[in-house]
Amino acid sequence: MHFLILGGNGRTGSLVVELALSRGHAVTALVRNPDNFPLSQQEGLTLVQGSPMTPEDMDKAFKARPIDRKEAQADREQRPPAAAQEPTSNEPHDTASKPILDVFQKPDVVLVTLNAPRQSDNPLSKSIAPPRLMTTSITNALQTMEVHQVPGIVIMQAFGVGSSYNNNNFLMRLILSKTEMSKQFDDHNAVDAAVRAVSPDGSVSWTMLRPAMLAGEGTKAVRVLGDEGEDAGWFPSISRESVARFMVVECAEEGKWGMRTPVICN
């Protein structure tokens, strides 16, 4: 499969990229600074420089075609020497060195792990993200998906977004409504409304994944607490590795959880 990943340079996003590549998928990642991307030399990864908030950059990412280097090399080895070929008016003489640009086609699914940056790792610290980072980015993605006829999107949100809010304990509800985190959750809630409005009939298969508090390390068994976080308990949590695997395997590869908002924890 070919995945387009938005937010691939974040802590969860980089795990999604790494896992997808390890499972043999082609990955295109739209990133602001490709030179700082930790997995930039991985086989099967194509980096596109730009911002998901810019429609032109989003379109550029959808048009990117990852090159399978092994297949491209095999094709070159099977071609006759350049001198023996009859070039056409549109074909250069050195066709033996020309790579295959369409080994993979358009993305099969978009995976979104965007998160609003903050002044520090403290979740209550001030956000330094542009206003409506998530809403603008995902609206751009949905519009570009329609143009390129990409059928699916999986969006990482958080427990507390939308109808899952009331199943948080009272302390978390207070934090989500009265602190700096409220701005990020307002953005997530706007995404929820935008996604549902774009595809009320299921023409685009979406999943809005709502992991509990991100904590711990390693891939562990995942519990799904329904679409609203029923019986979540006091402070459920989940590791980033577990979220990455759920997104790649259950949501993208297996196509589960379409038109759902699963709340997940370990």
Task: Describe this entry's structure for a reader.
The structure is a single chain. This protein has 266 residues and is α/β, with parallel strands linked by helices. It is built from 7 helices and 10 strands. β1, α1 (11-22) and β2 (26-31) form a beta-alpha-beta unit. α1 (11-22) crosses α7 and α2 (55-63) packs across α4 (133-148). The longest helix is centred in the last third of the chain and has 18 residues, at 181-198. It starts with a strand and ends with a strand.
TL;DR?
The protein has 266 residues and is of the alpha/beta class. Helices cover 33% and strands 15% of the residues. Helix 1 (11-22) packs across helix 7 and helix 2 (55-63) packs across helix 4.
Helices, strands, pairings?
Blueprint: E1 2-6, H1 11-22, E2 26-31, E3 45-49, H2 55-63, H3 69-78, E4 109-112, H4 133-148, E5 152-156, H5 170-178, H6 181-198, E6 205-211, E7 213-214, E8 223-224, E9 237-238, H7 240-253, E10 263-265
Parallel strand pairs: 1-2, 1-4, 2-3, 4-5, 5-6, 6-10, 7-9
Antiparallel strand pairs: 8-10
Beta-strand percent range:
15-25%
What topology, given as strand order, has the largest sheet?
3-2-1-4-5-6-10-8
CA distance, first residue to last residue: 27 Å
Number of helix segments?
7
Mean pLDDT: 86
Largest sheet: 8 strands, mixed
Rg: 20 Å
How much helix is in the residues?
25-40%
How many β-strand runs? 10
Provide the low-confidence segments as ranges.
82-103
Which sequence of SSEs, written as H and E, runs from N to C?
EHEEHHEHEHHEEEEHE
* Helix/strand/pairing category: alpha/beta
So what's the overall shape?
globular
